[in-house]
Amino acid sequence: MPTARAQLLLSPAEYFKLADQALRSCPYRLTDIDGPKINRDSSVYIFSGKIELEGDFRLKFTETSFRESPNQLVRAIDYDFRRSGTKNEIFRFDNHGDTLDLGKPCHLHVNGSSRIYEGDTRLNGYSLIDIHLLDVVGLVCKFIRGEKLPWQ
After folding, report:
1. How far apart are CA 95 and CA 62, in angstroms?
2. Which residue range forms the structural domain that includes residue 55?
3. Model confidence over 91-100: pLDDT tens digits?
4. Is residue 65 one of the residues assigned to a domain?
5. What is the domain count for the chain?
6. Where do runs of H (alpha helix) occur along 4-148?
7. Considering the domain boundaries, does residue 106 fall inside one?
8. CA–CA separation, 49 and 24 (whole Å)
9. Cα 34 from chain centroid?
10. What is the DSSP letter of 14?
11. Report field, pTM of the whole predicted structure over 0.90
């Protein structure tokens, strides 16, 4: 049974609509969004963009999804949140271009550290399975409000 996150990802039109709304309604957005760009070539979806935020922060993202069947989606993701112009990310969820089946976790980078994997105690129970842009926007807003992130 797909996770709730996966259910949303299996409906690209609905997912892109909700993700775009979340980005555009972000109260910390300073600039218009570069993107999201959606390229649909048969069963391949590429969703990417960049947003500048209060406090000289930026979120850059790319999702590439391949639909292998109606209920099977393979993804490559990169959600990079950092202070503009700096080398180390505040956090980045990715899979380094490798594809992920639904139900499989990505990994997390924090402040330029080594990778953190699903089940690591530093995550405090936060799951890296089927992460998507709506999750990331929520985490970005928490950070900008000064709230702790799950792994802090």
Report:
1. 11
2. 4-144
3. 999 998 788 8
4. yes
5. 1
6. 4-9, 12-24, 133-144
7. yes
8. 12
9. 16
10. H
11. no
